[in-house]
Write a structure and sequence with these properties.
Number of helices: 7
Largest sheet: 3 strands, antiparallel
Number of domains: 3
Strand order of the largest sheet: 1-2-3
Strand content: 15-25%
Shape: flat
Helix content: 25-40%
Length: 235
């Protein structure tokens, strides 16, 4: 059987299917700690057959450090510049400002950016580790909380007022945008093929038997005479 491994990229329909299967089918659920790499295994018909999850390389990995020529001091400086998707060092790294809307409020960070030769594009290891898209400024936890709140209240304005109670002042327009964004992504997720309904086994022989009901036949085998009105039958 031919199996295709599709890498899991944050925010894609494949990532949502992969997370759903792990959360639903694995006995520990979906518990991801640190940097990781996921893959969804599919057959030629496109049906998912397995979910793979690889953890990040260890912070202290002697064979890797020897191959790269890293000492303890160099490893502390260079390890944050490794791509979480390939595990290879990035080139032309530089620091950039990053602002994120979180449940705790606005968070301002300084993160590394660099060029990945394997991916042939500029990447941010921090964004990869946190499951953020290239220009996404909202943490998935806040996005999920606000969109769920919007489904439980009658209006986006009520959802915005409720968000202020836990310290997240947002506008109803912003919540509407997040709902529309997740709704458009959910519409592209292919649903699993339903299993065929069980059918009765085919048969090739029908036997019909006529029963003999004594109380409905007369002495000669014909129908029993109708009783006159007011008459009672004694056995």
């Amino acid at each position: 059987m031919l199996i295709k491994l599709e890498p899991v990229r944050p925010g894609t329909p494949t990532a949502q299917r992969w997370a759903f299967y792990l959360h639903r089918c694995h006995y520990l659920g979906l518990q991801v700690v640190g940097e990781n790499l996921g893959c969804l295994a599919q057959n030629v018909q496109g049906r998912a057959v397995a979910c793979l999850l690889f953890g990040a390389p260890a912070w202290r990995c002697a064979p890797r450090d020897r191959a790269l020529g890293w000492s303890d001091c160099v490893r502390r400086q260079e390890l944050p510049t490794l791509s979480t998707k390939t595990g290879l060092p990035l080139t032309n790294t530089r620091w950039r400002d990053l602002q994120l809307e979180t449940v705790a409020g606005l968070v301002k960070l300084r993160v590394r950016h660099g060029w990945s030769q394997a991916l042939n594009r500029s990447v941010c290891p921090a964004r990869q580790a946190w499951g953020l898209d290239a220009y996404q400024r909202t943490r998935p936890e806040l996005q999920a909380r606000l969109t769920y709140t919007a489904t439980e209240v009658p209006s986006y304005e009520r959802a915005a007022r409720m968000a202020q109670t836990w310290g997240t002042p947002v506008s109803d327009t912003w919540i509407h945008f997040q709902v529309q964004r997740l709704g458009a992504a959910a519409a592209t997720i292919p649903l699993p093929t339903p299993s065929p309904l069980p059918r009765d086994p085919e048969f090739s022989l029908v036997v019909r038997m006529d029963g003999w009901i004594v109380r409905e036949r007369g002495r000669t085998g014909g129908p029993a005479p109708q009783a006159e009105p007011g008459a009672h039958r004694l056995s």
